[in-house]
Specification:
globular, 1 helix, mainly beta
């Protein structure tokens, strides 16, 4: 699960009883998000490339129809 807060963006592993942060970055360090891979025929998933201000990047596979709403709330590259 991806959690986008006012100050931090975190990728969480969530199970029935607990959640654990797998990756996290301060939101001000997020330089942008782009579609690294997106199949126009499959609106249920995409690979999003998260660019960090230090020049690094991370690919996150987003699944489910809600991924488009997530991108709307973040800076696009």
């Amino acid at each position: 699960m991806l959690a986008v807060g006012e100050r931090q963006v975190s990728l969480l592993y969530v199970d029935e009883h607990e959640a654990e942060i797998a990756w996290s970055v301060p939101r001000e360090q997020l330089a942008g998000v782009e579609h690294a891979l997106w199949d126009a025929h499959d609106a249920q998933q995409a690979t999003l490339r998260w660019h960090i201000r230090d020049g690094s990047w991370y690919d996150v596979k987003a699944q489910g129809g809600g991924w488009k709403l997530l991108v709307d709330g973040l800076p696009l590259r």
